[in-house]
């Protein structure tokens, strides 16, 4: 049976002919990647009071990319001028989901903002704005669109560290990834282990230190997998873990 994978969307203020509305938006690529990996993607509008009930039906969870988390969530009183589109409703929901998934050992994948949401939910902090270009220690542009690179084009490499789940997935020490972020993990949360670093030493992936599946990446594998099939592996690993957990639960 194909496992159900919940994906969080991004709220967006969209102008229609009859007014301005908040819409819950999700790039098609997230759903396509989960589907291609064998899962059944469903979109989860924010509803912090229903997190317990959602976990009755979710076999796996994907926290997607998007705008920035309120810095007060990780103890920064000052908001950097580049920190943008903070949404307390989304923050609350995704933090509750991340904590709920860890507590219930529900397989969890985070992408871009998702790695940041998981780190903040578990007690870590973020760098509010990364230096770019000449100001960056390795001359990197973590917002690769600012230097004209397409979404499925690698923007920099990452170094896979240790004996992590991520390294086992990619079977190598270094892989090319895309990059569309201006924030990153600063202080790593308890329970997380850094699994990949960019050449400027930005943390680009984490895994959980427990037995349940927790993987989060700072890049966007969903935008790469069609041209770089190995980037489907994080989704395949999530779906496999979701399937296994649900099969074990129903066997009890
Ligand atoms: Mn990057």
Order of helices and strands: EEEHEHEHEHEEHEEEEEH
Poorly predicted parts: none
What fraction of residues sit in β-strands? 15-25%
Largest sheet: 9 strands, mixed
Distance between the termini: 17 Å
CATH homologous superfamily title: Class I glutamine amidotransferase (GATase) domain
How would you explain this protein's 3D organization?
This protein is an alpha/beta fold and 252 residues long. The chain has a single domain, classed as Rossmann fold (3-Layer(aba) Sandwich), CATH 3.40.50. The chain is built from 6 helices and 13 strands. The chain has helices at 28-36, 51-57, 88-104, 113-121, 165-170, 233-251; strands at 4-7, 10-16, 19-25, 40-43, 60-63, 108-111, 126-127, 156-160, 174-177, 184-185, 192-197, 203-208, 214-217. The strands form 3 sheets. Strands 4-1-5-6-13-12-11-8-9 form a 9-stranded mixed beta sheet, with helices on both faces. A two-stranded antiparallel ribbon has the order 2-3. A hairpin with a 5-residue loop joins strand 11 and strand 12. The mean pLDDT is 95. Residues 142, 156, 179, 181, 198, 204, 218 line the site of manganese (II) ion.
Topology (SSEs and partners):
Blueprint: E1 4-7, E2 10-16, E3 19-25, H1 28-36, E4 40-43, H2 51-57, E5 60-63, H3 88-104, E6 108-111, H4 113-121, E7 126-127, E8 156-160, H5 165-170, E9 174-177, E10 184-185, E11 192-197, E12 203-208, E13 214-217, H6 233-251
Parallel strand pairs: 1-4, 1-5, 5-6, 6-13
Antiparallel strand pairs: 2-3, 7-10, 8-9, 8-11, 11-12, 12-13
Helix pairs in contact: 3-4
